[in-house]
Amino acid sequence: MIVVDANVFVSLLVAADAHHERCVAWLRAQLSAGEMLVAPAILLPEVGGAISRRAAPDAGREAMAALKRIRALRLVPVDAKLAGLAAELAVAHGLRGADAVYAAVADSLDISLVTLDADFRRVAGRIEIVAP
C-alpha cells in the first residue's frame, strides 16, 4: 500500500503536464505489481478542481469518474481522528492543510507517500516520501 498525493493523479490525467509520462509509468508499474493505492477522500475534489481549472468543469468531472474506476484505489474518509492527526502534522511541520491530510493517512497506516511536492520533505523523518 502507498498513499498517492493528488498532484500525481493530476499529472497522470493531464497529457500536457511535465510529469505526465513519469506518472503514467509509475502507476502502470504499481498496478502491475498489485499495489493498493490509498488517498484521503479529499482526493476527488482536489483532482476535479485542479483539472477543471486547467480545462473545463466537464473535464474535472471526467477526472473524478476516472479515479473512481481505479479498483486499486482506496479512499479513506477524513474523520475527526484523522483531522486531528493532520492538524498536528500541519502545525509541527508547517504543512498546508490538504497536504497534512495526505501525510496523516500515510502516518496512520505506517506507509509511504508518493508525491511531486517538495514540501513533503518536511515530514520525511516521520513518513517515507517517494517520487513517482
Automatic annotation (TrEMBL):
Annotated PIN domain residues: 2-125
Cofactor(s), by name: Mg(2+)
EC number per UniProt: 3.1.-.-
Top-level taxon in the UniProt lineage: Bacteria
Function summary: Toxic component of a toxin-antitoxin (TA) system. An RNase.
Protein's name in the database: Ribonuclease VapC
InterPro entries (UniProt xref): PIN-like_dom_sf, PIN_dom, TypeII_TA_RNase_PINc/VapC, VapC_family
Alphabetic keyword roster: Hydrolase, Magnesium, Metal-binding, Nuclease, Toxin, Toxin-antitoxin system
Family: Belongs to the PINc/VapC protein family.
KW Metal-binding (keyword) present: yes
Positions annotated to bind Mg(2+): 5, 99
GO molecular function, one term: hydrolase activity
